């Protein structure tokens, strides 16, 4: 891998393959430390003696795509939103695919239903790999949806 940073626009398409999200619009936000993912609902359970979280998110045109996923809870922390309100959020670690790159990131779950972008990509997820052109937008195009395997709907 070269030392050159990949340039992102202020918004990009991302994928979270381990969560079953092949593409999602994300706002690139260097003012936010952590990344956040919109969820409509979340629930906790124990798997193999460890705490897990299940969640549902809807996104896409007219919110027509519904994804249910689950992941081990990595951490829980207080997070201040853009209005300064503090909230305790669940964090998980998951692979992010963006601009031909993949890296594992930390992401918190919250209701971003009132926001234009279901995901916010914070600076810790970008550090050392990406740089931002605030005049750019969707510089890396939309990832293709996976092709269904024969015999699957």
From TrEMBL:
<feature type="domain" description="Retropepsin-like aspartic endopeptidase">
    <location>
        <begin position="8"/>
        <end position="142"/>
    </location>
</feature>
<dbReference type="Pfam" id="PF05618">
    <property type="entry name" value="Zn_protease"/>
</dbReference>
<dbReference type="InterPro" id="IPR008503">
    <property type="entry name" value="Asp_endopeptidase"/>
</dbReference>
<dbReference type="InterPro" id="IPR021109">
    <property type="entry name" value="Peptidase_aspartic_dom_sf"/>
</dbReference>
<protein>
    <recommendedName>
        <fullName>Retropepsin-like aspartic endopeptidase domain-containing protein</fullName>
    </recommendedName>
</protein>
């Amino acid at each position: 891998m070269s030392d050159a940073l990949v340039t992102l626009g202020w918004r990009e398409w991302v994928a979270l393959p381990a969560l079953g999200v092949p593409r999602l619009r994300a706002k690139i936000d260097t003012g936010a430390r952590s990344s956040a993912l919109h969820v409509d609902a979340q629930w906790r359970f124990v798997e193999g003696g460890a705490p897990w979280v299940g969640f549902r998110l809807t996104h896409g045109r007219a919110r027509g795509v519904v994804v249910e996923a689950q992941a081990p809870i990595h951490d829980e922390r207080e997070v201040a939103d853009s209005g300064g309100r503090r909230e305790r959020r669940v964090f998980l670690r998951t692979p992010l695919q963006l601009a031909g790159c993949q890296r594992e990131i930390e992401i918190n779950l919250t209701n971003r239903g009132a926001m234009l972008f279901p995901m916010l990509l914070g600076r810790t997820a970008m550090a050392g790999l990406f740089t931002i052109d605030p005049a750019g937008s969707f510089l890396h195009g939309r990832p293709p949806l996976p092709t269904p395997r024969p015999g699957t709907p």
